[in-house]
Structures are given as structure tokens and as C-alpha cells.
Design goal:
Keywords: DNA-binding. Helix content is 24%, strand content 32%. The protein is built from 5 helices and 10 strands; from the N terminus they run H-H-H-H-H-E-E-E-E-E-E-E-E-E-E. It has helices at 21-36, 41-48, 52-60, 67-77, 82-85; strands spanning 93-96, 101-110, 113-122, 128-130, 138-145, 148-152, 157-159, 164-168, 173-177, 183-192. It starts with 20 loop residues before the first helix and ends in a 5-residue tail after the last strand.
């Protein structure tokens, strides 16, 4: 895993969703999307850069994936993250990465664009590097409290309380709290050319 110079402490990968029914639901939705696209488990594993055993465990509900794994898999399936983390008819789901806790507040389609709106909580500590989304995906972040360093991994930007930043997220990008205060923010992700299943 890539570590930023912001903090050299070891980062622990955390499951993206809580165990039990929600993890199994995520796996079931991944399998349904993969099969609907006629992609084999081996092919998706290879394309997403995720171990076959990890992907099989995710689909069977026996393994709880990291947020980074879910991003890699959904990018290869060509769907927004919300397509696998939120059960049909619901929108509220909380997912966790190595440094970010994100609660999906709303996912919606408009014309040929899907939007996902998240509430973020970023505690102090090592930053999170998220993999690239597909071409043309943008992220728009507003900080409510604290100071956040976010954006493309090679050129992150600082944003404090009341500030807004946005970037094209088709490259690896980072999120990390600056200082000792937890960050609270909103994140709108815009996926052109995609729609929710």
C-alpha cells in the first residue's frame, strides 16, 4: 500500500462494510453484476487486480472486502460504488477505508450521469490512497470541520472548514486529516456515462 509522508505509522486495512448480512448483500450484488455482464470470476479477478480467493470469498459472503477492493471491482464492472454497497430501494450504507468512513446519503441518475453523495469522517492518522476511477469521474468535496488533504496522489490540496475542492479522479487520489482533529465533509462523486442498475 502507498503511504504518504503525512504520517509514517503503519496503516491497517479495515473491512469496507460490517460483517453479517450487509457483507453478504454486497457479495451477492457483485456476483449478480458480474454474471449479468458475462464476466468469469477469473477474468474479473485479473482485470481488477484482486485475488481470485478474495473475490470468491466476497461473492460468497465469507470475506469482507476493503473499500479499495470494492472500488477496483466496481470500476471493472462499470458501475458506481453505490450499485454494490446499497441494497435496491435503500440508499444509506456506511463503508470504511483505511482512513475514511463514508456514509452514502443519496445516489441518483440524471440524464446519462450517476451521482453519489457521501458524508465523510476522516480521523487523524495515515492517509488513504484510493485507486483511479474510470475516465471522466470527478469528485467534489466540501469540508465542514477540520483540515483535509485530498485530491490526486501526486498533487493533493488542503481544504479547511467551509472550503470546497474538486478534481478528476481517474488517477489514484488521497484523503487524509491534517493535524489532530477529525475531519467532517461531504463528497459528491460524478460518474458520466454510467447509471445505477
Amino acid at each position: 500500500m502507498h503511504h504518504s509522508r503525512m504520517d509514517s505509522r503503519r496503516t491497517t486495512r479495515r473491512p469496507a462494510v460490517d460483517g453479517g448480512g450487509e457483507g453478504a448483500g454486497v457479495g451477492r450484488r457483485v456476483r449478480e453484476l458480474r454474471e449479468a455482464r458475462g464476466i468469469s470470476l477469473s477474468a474479473l479477478s485479473r482485470r481488477a487486480g484482486v485475488g481470485k480467493a478474495t473475490l470468491s470469498g466476497l461473492e460468497n459472503g465469507t470475506r469482507n472486502p476493503t473499500l479499495e477492493t470494492l472500488y477496483a471491482v466496481t470500476a471493472e464492472l462499470g458501475v458506481p460504488l453505490a450499485a454494490v454497497i446499497a441494497a435496491p430501494g435503500t440508499e444509506s450504507a456506511t463503508i470504511r477505508g483505511t482512513a475514511v468512513e463514508a456514509t452514502l446519503l443519496r445516489a441518483f441518475d440524471e440524464d446519462d450521469v450517476t451521482f453519489e453523495l457521501y458524508r465523510l469522517r476522516v480521523p487523524p492518522g495515515p492517509p488513504q490512497t484510493s485507486p483511479a476511477h474510470q475516465r471522466g469521474v470527478t469528485e467534489h468535496l466540501t469540508v465542514f470541520s477540520g483540515v483535509l488533504r485530498a485530491g490526486p496522489a501526486d498533487a493533493p490540496v488542503l481544504a479547511g472548514t467551509g472550503q470546497h475542492i474538486s478534481w478528476t479522479s481517474d488517477v489514484p487520489h488521497v484523503y487524509g486529516a491534517v493535524g489532530d482533529d477529525e475531519v467532517h465533509a461531504s463528497l459528491l462523486i460524478r460518474y458520466p456515462g454510467r447509471s445505477l442498475p
